[in-house]
Write a structure and sequence with these properties.
By secondary structure, the protein is α+β, with helices and mostly antiparallel strands. It has seven helices and ten strands. The protein folds into two domains: 8-71, Arc Repressor Mutant, subunit A (Orthogonal Bundle); 76-233, Chorismate lyase (3-Layer(aba) Sandwich), CATH 3.40.1410.10. The chain has helices at residues 8-21, 34-41, 45-57, 87-93, 112-118, 165-171, 190-196, and strands spanning 61-64, 68-71, 76-78, 98-109, 125-135, 138-148, 178-187, 203-212, 218-227, 231-233.
Length: 239
């Protein structure tokens, strides 16, 4: 449909959405009143009202009595629950700018939990990788990953502030072909809260992930702590 064929209310909705996504109308701000928008776009108030209703139904705006129309905090739909792909790939596909802050990367002896999930001996050497990941400069997930040292000793050669772990594993014929995930909802402790920029005790989604290669051997064990206020999760089940 060309712009000439697009209804006026939809063109206005598109423009308002662009202003929301680019920060002209920030989260929790009040957008201009209908009468002002009608004058700005040179349309009737019912047309503006329809545009606003479109964005309300899509979850971008919220009408508040006596206050006006509020820009809502929009959650990011995470689809890794039924897809196997890198964080950067998934975010980029949504038009979101991904960024990674590498907090820690070194070799350590496996704990009981790590050795069980990687099916290796207790205290066997593993690489521990801790990354704080962002979406449009907003911290949204803290990820701690363990990889068995014996299967890919070259891992320390890479800068995981930039590199994708899944792509590196694939380069060494260790592609993750299946994952097993467990979800818990817990309260953020002080360290997690500070890193994710949320209050202590706020809800956090904990995903425990075991990544397996084609031979069904674990190559990765990760604990991802997602902010509850900025993330939602898509579950796609087929029969």
């Amino acid at each position: 449909m060309s712009e000439k064929e697009t209804p006026k209310y939809q063109l206005i909705a598109n423009d308002l959405l662009h202003k929301i996504q680019t920060g002209i109308y920030p989260q929790n701000s009040i957008i201009p009143p209908e009468v002002e928008l009608a004058d700005r776009y040179q349309v009737s108030r019912p047309t503006v009202r329809q545009a606003i209703s479109t964005l309300v139904n899509q979850g971008y705006l919220e009408r508040r009595r006596k206050r006006g129309t509020l820009v809502k905090k929009v959650k990011i739909e995470q689809e890794f629950t039924h897809l196997i792909e890198s964080y950067s790939t998934e975010m980029s596909a949504k038009g979101i700018y991904p960024k990674t802050n590498l907090l820690y990367f070194d070799e350590e002896p496996a704990t009981a939990e790590v050795s069980q999930n990687l099916q290796i001996g207790l205290k066997a050497p593993v690489f521990k990788l801790v990354r704080l990941r962002y979406a449009n400069d907003q911290p949204i997930v803290l990820v701690t990953t363990y990889v068995p040292q014996e299967r890919i000793p070259q891992l320390l050669d890479y800068d995981f502030a930039q590199a994708s772990l899944y792509r590196i594993l694939e380069k060494y014929q260790l592609k993750v072909t299946r994952v097993v995930r467990k979800l818990e909802v817990m309260e953020a402790d002080e360290t997690t809260a500070n890193l994710l920029n949320i209050a202590v005790h706020k809800p956090v989604f904990y995903f425990h992930t075991q990544g397996l290669t084609a031979d069904e051997r674990p190559i990765e064990f990760s604990i991802a702590e997602y902010r509850g206020d900025l993330n939602s999760f898509v579950i796609d089940v087929q029969r």
